[in-house]
Amino acid sequence: MSSTVLTYGAETWTLSKQDEYRLSIFERKILRRIYGPVIDKGEWRIRTNRELYQLYDEKDIVKFCKLSRLR
C-alpha cells in the first residue's frame, strides 16, 4: 500500500500512537475496498484483518513510514 500520494514526505513525519492507529485503520479500509467482500456459507461478509494481511503480502503502512524515516 506504500502509495506515493499517501506516504509523500513520510520520512519527515513524527507519528504519535494515535497517528499510527489512524493510518492502520485507513490502510485496512482501503484494502477492504480493493479486495471486496467474500461469500461465506451463502452470506456476504467483509474480510477480517488477518485475511487482508494474508492477501496483501507487504509491510503495513506504519512500518513503511518508520523505515522511510530511517533512510
Structure write-up:
The chain has one domain. Helices cover 51% and strands 8% of the residues. The chain has 3 helices and 2 strands, in the order αββαα. A two-stranded antiparallel sheet has the order 1-2. β1 and β2 form a beta hairpin. The radius of gyration is 14 Å and the shape is elongated. The protein starts with 16 loop residues before the first helix and ends with a helix. The model has no long low-confidence stretch (mean pLDDT 85).
Number of domains: 1
Number of helices: 3
- CA-based gyration radius: 14 Å
How much helical structure, as a percent, in the residues? 40-55%
Quick one: how many beta strands?
2
Largest sheet: 2 strands, antiparallel
Structural class: mainly alpha
Terminal residue distance: 19 Å
Described by the principal axes of the CA atoms, the overall outline is: elongated
Mean pLDDT: 85
N to C succession of SSEs: HEEHH
Poorly predicted parts: none
Sheet-strand content, in percent, reads 5-15%
**How do the strands of the widest beta sheet line up side by side?**
1-2
List the SSEs and their pairings.
Layout: H1 17-35, E1 38-40, E2 43-45, H2 49-55, H3 61-70
Antiparallel strand pairs: 1-2
Notable characteristics:
71 residues; two-stranded antiparallel sheet; 8% strand; elongated
